[in-house]
Amino acid sequence: DQQVKQNSPSLSVQEGRISILNCDYTNSMFDYFLWYKKYPAEGPTFLISISSIKDKNEDGRFTVFLNKSAKHLSLHIVPSQPGDSAVYFCAALYNFNKFYFGSGTKLNVKP
Amino acid sequence: SQTIHQWPATLVQPVGSPLSLECTVEGTSNPNLYWYRQAAGRGLQLLFYSVGIGQISSEVPQNLSASRPQDRQFILSSKKLLLSDSGFYLCAWSDGLHYNEQFFGPGTRLTVL
C-alpha cells in the first residue's frame, strides 16, 4: 500500500511561470515531508522540507505548502527555469527514521 | 563534511549470479542507512533500513538481503539474481542532526540478463 502518492507523472511549464507539484499521503503520523530533485543516473538531492506542525516553508524560489486536513502537500517553483527540469520526488518521514517516497513527477520547463 | 560512496556505478550480471553492492558513509557516526531501488519508470522503493550495526529492517519480501558489518558500511546482497532485480539501487543516510533530511549516494545501475 503506497502511503505517499504523486498522481501526475509529468508536468510541462513555460520558463518564468509557476510550477506546482502535488503530493498526497495517507498516514497522519508522518513527522516531516520532503521534496527531492533527481536527474537521470544520479541520486536524488534534497530540496526543501516542512515539519508536520507547519503549513508553509519557503526557500528562495521553492515553497512547500502542507494541508494536513486534506493530507496534501505541494511544491511551488517560481519562477521556473529550464535547469529545474528533472524528476521531483515527494517523501514523508515516519518515526524520525523511515522515509516513504512517491513515484515522482517529471517536470519539463520549456525555454 | 559528510560524504556517501556507492560502488560499482554500473553492473551487468547474468541471472542466477550473486550480487554484492557496497555503500559507505564518511563524516558522521551512527547514521541510519537505507537501500532503495528505482525500477524503470517507477518511484523509489525502500528495500532495507538500518539504525545500527547488525540491525536490519526489511520492507518488502524479495530476493535480496542487507547487512551492516560496520557503523558506516551497508551492503546489499543476493545469492541468485532474478531478471526482476534489474534497476537503479540507491544508498542513503540520515542522522540525529539531519533527521528530517536524507542524503543519497550516486547509485548503482544493475542490469540482470
So what's the oligomer here? heterodimer
Terminal CA distance of chain B reads 38 Å
Helix and strand sequence of chain B: EEEEEEEEEEE
Secondary-structure-based class of chain B equals: mainly beta
The Rg value of chain B, from CA coordinates, equals 13 Å
Shape of chain B: globular
Describe this structure in words.
The complex is a heterodimer of chains A (111) and B (113). Chain A contains no helices and eleven strands. Chain A is mostly beta strands and 111 residues long. In chain A, a hairpin with a 4-residue loop joins strand 7 (62-67) and strand 8 (72-77). The radius of gyration of chain A is 13 Å and the shape is globular. Chain B has no helices and eleven strands. Chain B has strands at residues 3-7, 10-13, 19-26, 32-38, 44-52, 55-58, 65-70, 73-78, 87-94, 103-104, 108-112. In chain B, the strands form two sheets. In chain B, strands 2, 4, 5, 6, 9, 10 and 11 form a seven-stranded mixed β-sheet that branches. Chain B has a four-stranded antiparallel β-sheet with strand order 1-3-8-7, with no helix packed on it. Chain B is globular. Chain B starts with a strand and ends with a strand. Classes of the chains: A mainly beta (111), B mainly beta (113).
